[in-house]
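A student in our group prepared the protein record below, which I am reviewing. This is what I was given:
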Amino acid sequence: MSDSGSDLARALFKPRSVALIGASSNPSSTSARPLNYLLKHGFAGAIYPVNPSVDVIGATPCHPSVRDLPGPVDHAFIMVRADRVAEAVRSCVTAGVTCATILSDGFAEAGPEGRAREAALIRLARETGIRLLGPNSIGIIDTDGFTCSANATLEMANLSRGGYGVISQSGSMIGALLSQGEARGIGYSSLVSVGNEVDLTVGEIGAMMVDDPRCKALLLFLESIQDRAALTAFARKAEAAGKPVLAYKLGRSKAGRDLAATHTGALAGDDATAEALLAHLGIARVRILETLFEAPPLFFGPASGASAATGARVAVVTTTGGGGAMVVDMLAGAAMQLAPPLPQIQRILSSHGISGGSSGLIDLTLAGTRPELVRAVLEALMDSDQVDAIAMVIGSSSQFHPELAVAPLRGFAAAAKPLGVYLVPAADQSRRILTDEGLAVFRTAESCVEGLRARLFRRKPQPDVAPQTDLADQVSRALKLVGTRALDEVASRGVCDLLGIAGPDGALATSAAEARDIFNRLGGPVVLKIVSADISHKSDSGGLLLGLTEASAVVDGFNALMRAQAEAHPDAVLKGVLVQKMERGGVAEALIGYRLDPSMGPMVMLGAGGTLAEILDDTTMRVAPVTLPIAREMIDEVRSLRAAKGYRNRPVGDLEAVAHAIVALSRLAHCGAVAEAEINPLMIQEQGNGVLALDALVVAQGATAQETTESERKKAG
């Protein structure tokens, strides 16, 4: 790390001494590897193996305990059984060790006993102040020599140094990235396996890596997000330092969704929520592992800032028609467009005796090895305000004539727009030359397109939105009146009123006579809805009657609803029936939802509304609260709302009112008492007439869907 770096950063990455607790003298043992690798790769500090059963390992003296070491220790690597880890940590505390990495498994992933063991380890770290990495951490690899890891990839003879720092929640991926980089001429500054993150998290380690002058970009391999606050601080620090952060996050999980009370909770899976959070923090997410270490050069230099063009138009230049066509095919699937044909490009091609270029794909044919032609085309594309990025596709010449193929690209690493190079054949020499040149070189068309997409769609970390304290206080007071259970619709509508989101006129009836009187005030037609905090989705259980136009039908409907719902949900508390004016003539229906994710924080969602919301899965999400410009972006991203823009002469919906409703609901982010909230459907009326919340559901913090729908499960089971 930097010469003036913190004591913790030095102890983690450049310690003066390391204790290997549980080191083995058996060469085939995993716990024998760290000593071998430290010696193999030239660690300059003191190495103290600790094992009471062994006097010497190879030529290195072994010690019975940390307390018996001849000198101070900055870093300990703990490799003992899970049930002995706490004891080892305590010995490190006594010896004044700054930090310890724990290789051992058998913690949260190992069932109730392991979770209890991990909880005790967390308490130990908090009480003593020692910093812990892991457990389940395969270690730290710093290419300046501190290879304190059990990863077998360190059997390689040498480690290439470079400008990428890696933080991985998967230990094995450390080795995979190291070996993949070595094969392509890509080097790293340091690689860290964080394991279970009982103490040190991705965000805190990332913030330390930002201070490392060797580190130019940070690459994350994520399985989950543990500490949003630390990740946020790290992302903003990296942005300020001009160091891009890219992340590969493992896919979609249903964990935590099955107990969701709202459609929003069911749709807001771990992956969708993480996607929104990473984008909010300016972390470029990729879904192809190769893109993670191939794409960083796209984010360096002048191309890392905003270019003159602001779209996602990619010019594809190729020396092989098939390879170029592959890239063109993938652009649409990645929400990008092929840049339009440019007259200046056709003039350049014609001057070199090449016809074509009118389709948009710029095929240089065999003339693509002429440096003057390639440079002229690339320079013209860089100057065009109709091009946002360039994909250069090189065919067989890159394998058999590397100097001819790559020579025209020299100097373009400092170009004003991102340039991704896709080498179609296995052209290792060209790949290394271009990598050394500082260009982003891709092995596949898929990773090339994804890298360009990550660069073009990446935005700076979003600023915080100032809280509305008065609103937060009002919502909290309203929720206290109904306890911690999920709110019934009447109470939920009270929260919507506080947010300024209007709904149809109506009132709660606790008797058939009251229902008749409300109908007489409203006039028909009306909707009847059962009101119960224990019945979250009324349409799913027959708790809804539509289009009643006579007082007698309302009376009969009230009695029928109360009787049927009492039978269907014997444990539910029925407060009565909401008699509500039935609204007609909306242009479209939407769903807007809010959810406080336990680990990733508050989120707001927009999607297709109605009973088919989960089936359609046409949604977009942002970190809450949002501003009006962000809300408008969300509207543009929901396919089903395009019809409300006047599609095929249909009426134009009041989408600006939708944006204001999204902003309003997202302000619940400053109301810590709310866990979930949803308006579904939100009726979008014609332009200028606003929106109406036809149904609402709010779940207070501390309430669970299990509590909300217990009676329904009992009935079903």
